[in-house]
Amino acid sequence: QSALTQPPSVSGSPGQSVTISCTGTTSDVGGYNRVSWYQQSPGTVPKLIIHEVNSRPSGVSHRFSGSKSGNTASLTISGLQADDEGDYYCASYRTDSTRVFGGGTRLTVL
Amino acid sequence: QVQLVESGGGVVQPGGSLRLSCAASGFTFSGDAMHWVRQAPGKGLEWAAIISKDGNVQYYADSVKGRFTISRDDSQNTLFLQMDNLRVEDTAMYYCGKDYRWLIDSWGQGTLVAVSS
Predict the structure, then answer these.
(1) pLDDT tens for residues B62-106?
(2) Which candidate in B56, B103, B105, B112 is best for mutational testing of the A interface (most A CBs within 10 A)?
(3) Residues B16-51: pLDDT tens digits?
(4) A87 and A77 in contact (C-beta within 8 Å)?
C-alpha cells in the first residue's frame, strides 16, 4: 500500500498561485472521484479543504480549488496569503476499500 | 458541532498493548463510518483503519492488519482501537475521524502513543 506521491515542498509569494499535485494509480486517484485535500498548520489537526476532487466544504475559502486528470489530482491555491503556510495532504479511496494519504507537501509563503 | 475526543495513549514497551478510545458528540454517531489515522513525529498522515456505520465491516492498512482491531459502541458513542503486539514504528499521534464522502471531515485532537523499551 504505497502512499500517493506529492512534491515535498512548494513555495510562492503573496498574491501568487501555487498548485500541488497528488499522483496515484487507477486503483485509487484515477479510479474514483473520491479525493480529499487537508491543510495542517503547525501544531494543529488536519482541516478538510476539498472533498470529492473539487468540492469545498462550507466556510472554506474560494481560493482553494481542486481538479483531477487521469491518476493525478491537483490542489490550487490562488491569491496566496501568509496563513496558507503549512502542510497539505491529499487522500483517496482505494479499490480494496482502504484509504491512502499522500506524503504531504510543505507550502512556504515567501 | 462535531466533537471527537481521543484518550488512552501512553508509553508502552514493544510487544505490549493499548486500547484507544474516541468519544463522539454533536452528530448521530451510529449514522457514520469512523476512521483512525496516525502521524508519527515529524512525519505525514497515515490512514490506519475504518469501521462501517453498522460496525459489521472493517478495513485496515497493511501496516496494522492482524495487530490492530477497530470497533465501536454506538450505545456509548465511542470508537475504539485495540492495538496489540506494538512496535517502535507504531509511535505516533493517533487521531479518530468522522467519515464524510468516503474520507474524513472532522478530526479529534489526537492521543499520543509511544512505543519504547
Answers:
(1) 999 999 999 999 999 999 999 999 999 999 999 999 999 899 999
(2) B103
(3) 999 999 999 999 999 999 999 999 999 999 999 999
(4) no
Mutation to test the B interface, candidates A41, A45, A95, most B Cβ within 10 Å:
A45
Task: Point out which residues pair with A69 in neighbouring strands.
Answer: A72
What are the tens digits of pLDDT across the range A70-106? 999 999 999 999 999 999 999 999 999 999 999 999 9
> Which chain A residues are closer than 8 Å to B60 by Cβ?
98
Q: Which of B44, B102, B108 sits opposite A93 (nearest CB)?
A: B102
